[in-house]
Amino acid sequence: MDFLAGCIGGAAGVLVGHPFDTVKVRLQVQNVDKPLYRGTFHCFQSIVRQESMLGLYKGIGSPMMGLTFINAIVFGVQGNTMRLLGRDTPMNQFLAGSAAGAIQCVICCPMELAKTRLQMQGTGERKSTRKLYKNSLDCLVRIYNREGLRGINRGMLTTLIRETPGFGVYFLTYDVLTRAIGCEPDAPYMIPKLLFAGGMSGIASWLSTYPVDVIKSRLQADGVGGVNQYHSIADCVRQSVKKEGYMVFTRGLTSTLLRAFPVNATTFATVTLVLMYGRDREAGLKDCEPAPPGNPAQLQSPAQAQVSSF
């Protein structure tokens, strides 16, 4: 049930948030000497005007396929790790989230590489006259043929550095907030509370690791024009700070935070409601079965089911 809920939540989150992600990537990797966009809203307007609304959804195939499985892995691993740890404490939520974040990097890194390359393709063109990549799969195949496994795992270390603590903060924040505001199934305004807790968890997670994301995007976009600008993570940091100062690590942050709230609100609320619905049905089926003599059936409440999975 954890994996199914993660799949559904992931797909919902991608549909809501991909336009914001396109804007974030464009702002993170644009040439500082010849910037195309003045800020978040100008970037939105320019993409829609020059490339149509579809320009905001460039590269959506990769996260739609990847994030669905990634969320299934994340929520599945996190839920199972919590059960292994035994106790539902904030520290265990952080550890379980970190473990889930580290494991999903194997899929996340190639997926984000393809997404980034496709988002940068045909910048400023309504109809791209020369497409290097047809779709996400074609992008990864071409990179693999040219650069091998190392090529499709470009940015793996920065992805690992971003995702491991990021997901720890993600689940920790959600756990603390749901306890603080009361998200029991019979609590008033439960769905708005779940949306608020999920959205704020996403914001906290991004704020904790955003500078690493800027470097990851630059490394993955490097070489799109045929020339590699950065030799390593340290070189990318050094060149970026030298040219743009330390504010470079906030590039695209506005669109990221605008995206983080609705995406993670949708994802967490969807996952929680699917889990509660699924476990309500399981409990209903068990109610129809006679309890063994001398061993009364003990059913898990929806609230306990929710806590055990996050």
Explain what you see.
With 310 residues, the chain is mainly alpha-helical. 72% of the residues lie in helices and 0% in strands. The chain has 11 helices and no strands. The protein has helices at 2-29, 40-51, 61-85, 90-103, 105-120, 136-152, 156-181, 190-221, 233-244, 253-287, 302-308. Helix 10 (253-287) packs across helix 11 (302-308). The protein is globular.
Give me the secondary-structure topology.
Elements: H1 2-29, H2 40-51, H3 61-85, H4 90-103, H5 105-120, H6 136-152, H7 156-181, H8 190-221, H9 233-244, H10 253-287, H11 302-308
Keyword list:
mainly alpha, single chain, 310 residues, disordered C terminus, globular
Rg, nearest Å: 21 Å
Order of helices and strands: HHHHHHHHHHH
Helix content: over 70%
Give the total of beta strands.
0
Number of helices, counting only DSSP H or I runs of 4 residues or more: 11
Oligomer: single chain
**N→C terminal distance:** 13 Å
Give the overall shape, derived from the CA principal axes: globular
Structural class: mainly alpha
Mean pLDDT: 82
Poorly predicted ranges (pLDDT <50, ≥5 residues)? 290-310
Note the main sheet.
none
Proportion in β-strands: under 5%
Q: Care to give the gist of this entry?
A:
The protein has 310 residues and is an all-alpha fold. Helix content is 72%, strand content 0%.
